[in-house]
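TL;DR need C-alpha cells for one chain.
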Amino acid sequence: MENQPDEKAILRSQLTNPRWMTLALAIICSLFALFTLMGVFFLFTLSTAGVKADAVQALQVARILAAVFCVFYAIFALLLFNNYSKLRKGIVVPKMLYFALSVFVILSAANSIFSGQLGGVFLPLIILLFSIKIILDLGKIK
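>> reply
TL;DR here they are.
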C-alpha cells in the first residue's frame, strides 16, 4: 500500500503541462491586449483632415475592430490567469474557455487574412495550437 502513488500527486502531474501552457497563453494575450491598446491610441490620434470619405470610413472600422480586439484579449488574459491559479492549486478547470479562445483566435486570424496582413496569422495559429493541446490534455484527466 505504501508504494501506491497519491491521487493528488497524479492529478498535479497531469495538470503540469496545461498549467504552464495556460500561463504562456495568458502572457501572450496580455501582450496582445497591451499592443492593441497602443494601436487604438495611435488610431485615435490620426487626423482625418483632408482625407477622402472612404479612407475615413476605413479608419473608423479599424478603430472599432482594434478596440473590440483589445477588450477581448484583455478578458481572455484575465480568465486565463484565473485558470492558471486554479490549475496551480490542483483544481481541474473546464475546457470551455479554451474552446472560446480557439474560436476567437480563428476569427482573429481570418480578420488578418481578409485585411491582407498575412504576418498577423502566425501568432494566433500558435495560440490555437496551444489551446488545442490544453483541451486534449484536460480531456485525458478523469
